[in-house]
Amino acid sequence: MPDYQRIKKELEGISIEDNPALVRQKSRDFYWYSPILKAQLDNVTADLVVTPKTEEEVIRTLQVAYAHDVPVTPRGAGTGNYGQAMPLSGGIVLNLAAMNTIKEIHPGRVICEPGIVIAELDRQTKAHSGQELRFHPSTAQTATIGGFIAGGSGGVGSITWGGLRDLGNILRLRVVTMEAEPRVLDLTGWDLTKVSHAYGTNGIITEIEMPLAPAYDWVDVLVGYDDFMDAVRFSDALAKCNGILVKEIAPIAAPIPHEYFTRHKPYIREGQSIVALMIAPHSMDPFVAFTRQQKGEITFRSDKVESMKGIPHAYELAWNHTTLRAIKVDPSITYLQVQYPGPDHVAKVQKMVETFGDEVPGHLEFIRFDGQIQCAGLPLVRYTSEARLEEIIRIHQDHGCPIFNPHRYTLEEGGMKQTDAVQLAFKRETDPKGLLNPGKMIAWDDPDFDFKSGKNYLFPGLAALM
Ligand code: FAD
């Protein structure tokens, strides 16, 4: 057992929390979305929470932790869904939330610290020069930019820009290594993929350079259809409209909108499926004309209501907020993450809708993927048992719809990040004792792990890229 009294002394001057209740609170994320992870991770807790204010304090913390063989699990805001930020082996939770300043803003890019909340980052870049991040998770109001890069994948804006996996959507990361004498590395180009969506297993991100896009006062819109597949076809057609500028297109099947979107209920009929949208103000006229042609019913426009007070942003109905709103009403609900590879993505969705009906109510996100429009899904699942969940996953996969399993806490089993020899060599270099977020990378713990399996990964292995 490490000598935490001594460790605290050696970290004197850096903010430390050791109250067990508060430490436990900061050892959690949104793992409880999954009944399986909830059972597995409920008792996980760290021993200390350390909150550095500077890169120098990060370096000191890692130095001390390395000397005492203490695991360190970085944390942004703890909004990850798969236990990414949960310290499986105890030790230190490194809370980056106090490193939250913007250092520089330029045309097309921003340089900032990792702990800034994404909505605050957008607020400052918009006020400075009318710019905003290309895309953000639906947790923008609470999540940090560092946590998004290390634990997320894409979100609001991915219809235009793709995701974090795409070269150019992160420009530079500064990373501190976990060694006797921690080094500071500046990563660019393909090297960025060593750290993006790696759950902080191979370095602590202390500085970030992100590309920016023009900011707009996006108009929130809901379009209603009586049939979910009509909503899906409308979404697909809109996503392929060259001239209409959209930031979010999420078709969501009945009964989700009327039953679970309590604040929007006055705008949604029972049995109605909706598409949650964000449209640039100057695109509203062509958008209305297009929607009329597609026989969609505009049931809500944020630019036409008297006040938005108490009404959440449209993007807070989408991505994993759809699941959150459903779980709040019915805690037995969980979800999946599905890819519907194109060009026949609409047909694949239809097949799954027909197969599962209301056991798996549909929720899609239209995105740009490898240059093509397709959709990803975060369908709800009316959970009955682990065996049935596995069966639902298998049926999707048998129909050519890969699952990124949100009921697993390791990088590999989640299926988003492929580890390989390059990734492993980088971890050996940056974290030789395996102290960073231990237990999250199977390839590190199991030398026989076969990372060459033919499985589909969102963030492919590095050997194939470089
Ligand atoms: P945390 O959860 O604190 O951390 C995420 C991971 O990053 C952890 O492994 C942590 O160890 C690591 N980490 C944190 N900071 C650092 C650092 N400085 N250096 C190295 N590693 C670090 N995700 C999406 O991609 N898109 C979405 O639209 C989306 N919507 C969501 C909606 C809801 C309601 C919820 C609950 C989750 C959603 N997520 C989504 C998942 C999650 O919110 C995002 O990935 C989010 O950006 C994580 O940020 P965070 O600050 O909370 O990170």
TrEMBL record:
| Xref: InterPro entries | FAD-bd_PCMH (IPR016166), FAD-bd_PCMH-like_sf (IPR036318), FAD-bd_PCMH_sub2 (IPR016169), FAD-linked_Oxase-like_C (IPR016164), Oxid_FAD_bind_N (IPR006094)
> Which keywords accompany this UniProt record?
FAD, Flavoprotein
Q: In the UniProt record, does the keyword Flavoprotein occur? A: yes
Q: Where is the FAD-binding PCMH-type domain?
A: 41-215
Q: Which residues form the signal peptide?
A: none
**A GO MF term:** FAD binding
Coiled-coil spans are none
> A Pfam family matched by this chain, by name?
FAD_binding_4
The GO biological-process annotations, alphabetized, read as: lactate catabolic process
Query: PANTHER family, alphabetically?
Result: D-2-HYDROXYGLUTARATE DEHYDROGENASE, D-LACTATE DEHYDROGENASE
Its name, as the record gives it, is FAD-binding protein
Q: Which organism is it from?
A: Rhizobium lusitanum
